[in-house]
Each structure stands twice: as C-alpha cells, then as structure tokens.
Design a protein that fits this description.
Layout: H1 2-83, H2 88-102, H3 108-124, H4 129-134, H5 143-172, H6 184-201, E1 205-212, H7 215-222, H8 224-241, E2 247-250, E3 255-261, H9 265-281, E4 284-286, E5 289-291, E6 295-302, H10 309-325, E7 331-333
Parallel strand pairs: 6-7
Antiparallel strand pairs: 1-3, 1-6, 2-3, 4-5
Helix pairs in contact: 1-5, 2-3, 2-5, 3-5, 7-8, 8-9
Length: 339
C-alpha cells in the first residue's frame, strides 16, 4: 500500500511538474506574444499619427492652394476690370471694391482717405506700387492683409497708371477720343469765354448737365464695348439736338455738359427735353444688343441762377441729381440764387 501510494504520489508530482513546465512555457510565450502585440500596437499608433499628420498637411496644402487660386482669380478679375476702363470714377469704384475684398480690416475713414490719395496720385501722374503701399496706415491693418495688398498693388498700380496716362492725354487734347465732343478742360475754357461775352452783352446763357441713368448696369450686363457704343450714340443724339453755335462736352464718364449761348430758360428747357426724349424714344443698337436707356438733365441759367461758370455748373449738377432723386428720366430746373 505504501509503495502504491509512493508510486501514485511520484506520478502526480511528475504530472504537476509537467503541467507547471508547460504552463511556464505557455506563460513565457504569452508574454512574448503580448510584447510583440504591444510593439505592433505602438507601431500602428505611430503610423496612425503619421497618417493624421499627413492628412492635416494635405488639408492645409489644399486650403492654401485653393486660397492661392482664389487670389490669382481675384487678381485676374481686377486686371480685367482695369483693362476695360480709362475713367477715374470707374477706377475709383474698382479700387474701393478691391480694398473691401483684400483689406477688410481697413477702417472706412482710412479707406476714404486712401481713395483721395489715389485720386491725387492719378492727377499728378505719380502712381506706383511704392506709393500705394506707403499710403496704407500701419494702425488698424494686420500684417497678413498688408502682405496680400502688396500683391494686389501691382495690378492696381498698372490700372491706375493707365487711367492717369489717359487723363494726361485727354487734358492735352481738345476732343474726347470716344465721343468726339469737347473734352472737359476745353469745354470749361469755352464756357468761361461765353460767360464773359454774356456779361459784356447783358445776355443770358443756359447750361445743361446731362447724365445717363443706370449706365453702370449697362457696363456690368453687356460689357464696356457695348457701353462705349452707347456713349458715342448718346453724344451724337445730344449734338444733333442742339444748335450749331452751342457747346457740347464730355464732362465725366457718363456725364455730358451743354452750353447754350444767348438762350433763355424756356429755350434751355426746350432743348433739354428734346435731348431727353431723343434718348428715351429710340433704342440703341450695339453689336447684337438692343439697349434702352434714359437721361436725367439739370438746367441752370446765367445770370438767373449763378454769377460764375463754377456756380452755373454746380447749380446744373444739383438740378440733375434732383432729377435722379425724383425718379430719373426728367428735366429739372435749378433754384434761383439768393442775392
């Protein structure tokens, strides 16, 4: 009995030792496998981080690329707009829109001062990229916006230089290149001469300020080539509505000035209405487009409404804007001056 017990115990001890050895080997393999899994898990986590980092870099690159494309597109549109105009009023509007888009942090008061500075540079023929950048105040603008404006200034300077050069050419010419009418400078000189003559002869002189209604919509809808045809045709109709002795000039972009020597207020209104109806009643054919447009006219009389040519123009201008305020396509007479 004792031998059988000893044999059984020996066998059980051997079995337990075998099981312990097997469990030890399994535990060691488990620890090794767990270590490998932990290492692989760490490697996978690192790879996931790398992929996330690459995705973030790709997204940032995509955003930057899209921003660059938008900026290039914006510069192209800016250049295209400037190529289509030689008029300061329109160039001022383009510049103002560019400031709002590219310099949103720019204060409105600073923006207005900037535009005045640009107008002065255009008139002096001193437009340059450096001048455009130096005119931006440091206060109130962030550096990233100034960096963007440095890029925009190149296109802006080229456009304003063209406008400035055109103004200089126009000032040395007696006729407007587009309409064939008197240029503003020449018209004003002739108007002063007629005022002096009216003063010596105790005669009167009627002045008309004619402005196209919603002309910007024509340019925006049909393009500047069609707009040029409209301006030429309006100039022709105005010229055909006045007397041979009368003076007709292109005062601004879509503004025309008419001086009627030896004309009283009644004749001035009569000719103004002839011009207005002549524009309103017949459409203008420009390329494949048929354009209908109207004009607003202000009438002022020397010496009833004004004592000088400057006052006469101011009164005519105010009357014209009153015509627009009343609904456009009207003729309005200036208020008599107080003595």
């Amino acid at each position: 009995m004792s031998q059988r017990l000893i044999l059984w115990l020996s066998t059980w001890i051997l079995v337990c030792a075998g099981i312990a050895l097997l469990l030890g080997r399994l535990h060691g393999r488990f620890r090794t496998d767990r270590k490998r899994i932990t290492q692989r898990e760490g490697a996978l986590k690192e790879r996931v981080k790398e992929l996330e980092s690459e995705r973030e870099r790709w997204q940032a690159s995509t955003v930057e690329r899209e921003r660059s494309i938008q900026e290039i597109g914006g510069l192209y549109q800016l250049s295209k707009q400037f190529l289509a105009t030689l008029d300061w009023e329109e160039a001022q509007q383009i510049t103002q829109e560019a400031l709002a888009k590219w310099m949103p942090s720019f204060k409105e008061s600073d923006r207005n001062q900037y535009l005045q500075r640009m107008k002065s540079l255009v008139e002096q023929g001193q437009v340059s990229v450096e001048a455009l950048l130096q005119s931006i105040p440091l206060a109130g603008t962030d550096f990233s916006a100034r960096d963007r404006w440095a890029i925009v200034s190149g296109q802006l300077a080229l456009g304003l230089q063209r406008v400035s050069l055109y103004r200089q050419v126009q000032e040395t010419a007696s006729q407007d290149g587009l309409t064939g009418l008197l240029v503003r400078r020449n018209f004003l000189e002739r108007l002063d001469d007629e005022i002096d003559r009216a003063l010596r002869r105790s005669a009167s002189l009627a002045f008309l300020m004619v402005d196209l209604d919603r002309f910007k919509q024509v340019n925006d809808t049909y393009g500047h080539l069609v707009g040029d045809v409209v301006l030429r045709e309006i100039a022709r109709r105005i010229h055909s509505s006045v007397r041979e002795m009368d003076l007709v000039g292109r005062y601004g972009g879509e503004e025309f000035a008419v001086a009627l020597p030896d004309a009283g207020l009644e004749l001035g209104i009569q000719i103004a209405e002839r011009i207005r109806l002549g524009v309103e009643e017949a459409p203008i054919h420009a390329y494949d487009e048929e354009i209908r447009i109207t004009v607003s006219i202000g009438v002022a009389l020397y010496p009833l409404h004004a004592a000088t040519s400057d006052q006469l123009i101011e009164k005519g201008d105010r009357a014209m804007y009153k015509a627009k305020a009343l609904g456009r396509n009207q003729t309005v007479t200036a208020a008599e001056r107080t003595t």
